[in-house]
Amino acid sequence: MIPAPELLNTSLAQIRTLERFLSEQLDERKAGAPPATAETDACHELLGRIRGLLARSAQLTVLNLSCPDHSSTRRDDTATT
Questions:
Q1: d(C-alpha 16, C-alpha 13), whole Å
Q2: What distance in Å separates the CA atoms of residue 57 and residue 51, rounded to the nearest whole number?
Q3: In this structure, what DSSP letter does residue 61 have?
Q4: Neighbour tally for 36: CB within 10 Å
Q5: Is the predicted pLDDT of residue 78 greater than 50, yes or no?
Q6: Is 35 left (phi over 0), alpha (psi -120 to 50) or beta?
Q7: What is the pLDDT of residues 26-38, one digit of tens each?
Q8: Tens digit of pLDDT for each residue in 23-69?
Q9: Where does 1-81 have alpha helices with state H?
Q10: Gyration radius (Cα) of the chain, Å
């Protein structure tokens, strides 16, 4: 089994890769884009949510680094907004 810190780092790296890919693809479509479709709208929404997740993970990393006593505190923030 992969240790939790390594699993988290690997997962975040994969999410960053997906964020870059979606961003590049959506930027390319702006240049000579056909009218927006439901799928394009879904991609834009997904990209926004991914960026929010990455921002949230960065905030939690800063908090854990500044408060080492709380770094092992587990939270279940699975609710979506």
A1: 5
A2: 10
A3: H
A4: 11
A5: no
A6: beta
A7: 987 776 667 788 9
A8: 999 987 776 667 788 998 999 999 999 999 999 998 887 777 666 55
A9: 4-31, 38-66
A10: 16
